């Protein structure tokens, strides 16, 4: 019975693959990536506003500090909120900050908006919903909890697939945590493992109001097409909104597409106008500077040396910007450029695999060894998932060897006693450079799920600043230091034995994990 239920997701229709159009890059330095602003808003900031974090504990402490300091808004999007003591402490911080806001003179300014996935957030008797209901009851005018439900889980499929397995159809997977004008982008969820011994990536963008506004609007847009958690633990849609699994699927997806694309396009227009205004004022400033000397320089805002591009992927809604940008970056990477790519779940799409194997750049791909895979030691069918990843990894490695690309494309496995591995993203080093000028950081895993099933967001950070490039380089080095290079002998080890049934089932289910 459980095997049949595992295959039940195959009843959903396949989604056609759409490849990114070719796009040629500008020739010089970091500015060669300005083509991305044809698709999404470009936010120019000072590199001094960017801080790369390195540990789960640092991430957790920063969340608490930022919540306590928030005055206007707290916006948190995650897959789920855990139910342990550390998560309760976060909820207590929110309650304390809301209470302070309530007691302030006049009407309270603080607004809290939380976006989670419906299926993952509803799992078990004690879950994300039960953790947040006290906040809704105490602060009904200030707190909003939205639960995204994929439109692809509906009808007979929704009735047949049990809890946990229903999460394979599609999820809200975006992880963004913002507090007033400070934004944390990560792949980490709001759960105790991600605060203690589950390695991920995290970047803080300080004093970045335009970026904070963008992600607030994005979370609001997804929240508007999501189920709203009520004080009695029921859920309902906003008035007049099409229901994600009871209403017309095409109509729902069209509305969701329109809401999200409005956010992207309006931000893009705003940034273009701001860019033009800044350009003209900087020209005027240059003239003023030449006329009045160095005294005028103190009044001018420093030129940005770092650019942030939000990359959104929501294939259920027909939005595939992240896929287009990632494919273009892989396609256009020059000979002798180096790409360090990492994923906690090595299950690349065919398009990404073809580009890695067929292009000129050098690749160092970091993935989880079976022991640090998040599913290691899980009960039931889920316990076989690490073996399925080993099988997928072995197949890819065999293809690399078959094409004699072992020098150019190298696999490395992260291994650390007592830890699990969840980091994802990439660092791009231009030919002849010892430091990266671009990184991708956020929620996507470069797999079929990320591209086709889930709601994803990451940012491309492009920088000319050497100190920030050094921060990104150290982040990359620190992760790769805990790894060993994969070779033929890796797959001869006893812990790499893959049972025949796993080999047979993996091709059928690999698009669901």
Total helical elements: 15
Number of strands: 21
Main CATH class of the largest domain: Alpha Beta
Helicity, as a percent range: 25-40%
Low-pLDDT sequence parts: 1-27
Range of strand content: 15-25%
Structural class: alpha+beta
- Average pLDDT taken over every residue: 90
CATH superfamily of the largest domain: Endonuclease Chain A
CATH architecture of the largest domain: 2-Layer Sandwich
Q: Any idea of the CATH topology of the largest domain?
A: Endonuclease, Chain A
Shape estimate: globular
Q: Radius of gyration, Cα only, in angstroms? A: 23 Å
Largest sheet: 10 strands, mixed
Distance between the termini: 20 Å
Q: What is the domain tally?
A: 2
Describe what this molecule looks like in 3D.
The structure is a single chain. With 513 residues, the chain is α+β, with helices and mostly antiparallel strands. It folds into 2 domains: 219 residues, Endonuclease Chain A (Endonuclease, Chain A), CATH 3.30.870.10; 207 residues, Endonuclease, Chain A (2-Layer Sandwich). It is 38% helix and 19% strand. The chain is built from 15 helices and 21 strands. The strands form 3 sheets. Strands 1, 12, 13, 14, 15, 16, 18, 19, 20 and 21 form a 10-stranded mixed β-sheet that branches. The N terminus is likely disordered.
């Amino acid at each position: 019975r459980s095997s049949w239920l595992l295959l039940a997701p195959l009843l959903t229709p396949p989604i056609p693959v759409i490849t990114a159009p070719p796009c040629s890059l500008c020739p010089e330095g970091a500015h060669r990536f300005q083509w991305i602003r044809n698709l999404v808003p470009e936010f120019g900031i000072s590199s001094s506003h960017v801080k790369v974090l390195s540990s789960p504990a640092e991430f957790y402490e920063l969340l608490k500090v930022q919540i306590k300091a928030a005055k206007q808004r707290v916006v948190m999007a995650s897959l789920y909120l855990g139910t342990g003591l550390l998560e309760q402490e976060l909820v207590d911080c929110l309650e304390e900050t809301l209470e302070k806001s309530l007691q302030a003179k006049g009407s309270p300014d603080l607004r809290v908006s939380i976006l989670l996935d419906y299926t993952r957030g509803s799992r078990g008797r004690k879950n994300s919903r039960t953790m947040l209901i006290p906040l809704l009851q105490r602060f009904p005018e200030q707190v909003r909890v939205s639960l995204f439900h994929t439109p692809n889980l509906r009808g007979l499929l929704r009735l047949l697939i049990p809890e946990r397995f229903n999460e394979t159809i599609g999820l809200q997977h975006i992880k963004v945590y913002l507090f007033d004008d400070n934004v944390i982008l990560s792949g980490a969820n709001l759960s105790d493992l991600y605060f203690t011994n589950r390695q991920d990536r995290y970047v803080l963008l300080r004093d970045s109001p335009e970026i904070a506004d963008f992600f607030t609007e994005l979370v609001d847009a997804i929240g508007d097409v999501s189920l709203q958690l009520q004080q009695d633990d029921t859920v309902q849609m906003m008035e007049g909104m099409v229901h994600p699994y009871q209403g017309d699927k095409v109509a729902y997806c069209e509305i969701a597409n329109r809401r999200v694309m409005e956010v992207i396009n309006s931000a893009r227009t705003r940034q273009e106008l701001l860019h033009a205004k800044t350009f003209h004022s900087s020209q005027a400033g240059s003239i003023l500077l030449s006329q009045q000397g160095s005294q005028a320089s103190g009044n001018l805002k420093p030129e940005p040396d770092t650019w942030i591009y939000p990359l959104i992927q929501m294939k259920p809604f027909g939005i595939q910007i992240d896929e287009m940008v990632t494919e273009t970056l892989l396609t256009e990477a020059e000979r002798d450029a180096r790409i360090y790519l990492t994923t906690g779940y090595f299950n690349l799409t065919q398009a990404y695999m073809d580009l890695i194997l067929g292009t000129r750049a050098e690749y160092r791909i970091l993935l989880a060894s079976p022991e640090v895979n998040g599913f290691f030691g899980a009960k039931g069918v889920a316990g076989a998932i690490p073996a399925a990843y080993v099988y997928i990894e072995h197949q890819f490695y065999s293809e690399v060897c078959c094409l004699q690309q072992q020098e150019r494309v190298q696999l490395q496995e992260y291994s650390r006693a007592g830890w699990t591995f969840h980091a994802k993203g990439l660092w791009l080093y231009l030919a002849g450079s010892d430091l990266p000028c671009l990184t991708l950081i956020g929620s996507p895993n470069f797999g079929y799920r990320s591209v086709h099933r889930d709601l994803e967001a990451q940012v491309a950070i492009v920088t000319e600043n050497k100190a920030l490039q050094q921060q990104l380089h150290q982040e990359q080095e620190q992760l790769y230091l805990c790894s060993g290079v994969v070779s033929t002998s890796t797959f001869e080890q006893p812990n790499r034995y893959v049972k025949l049934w796993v080999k047979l089932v993996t091709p059928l289910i690999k698009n669901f994990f």
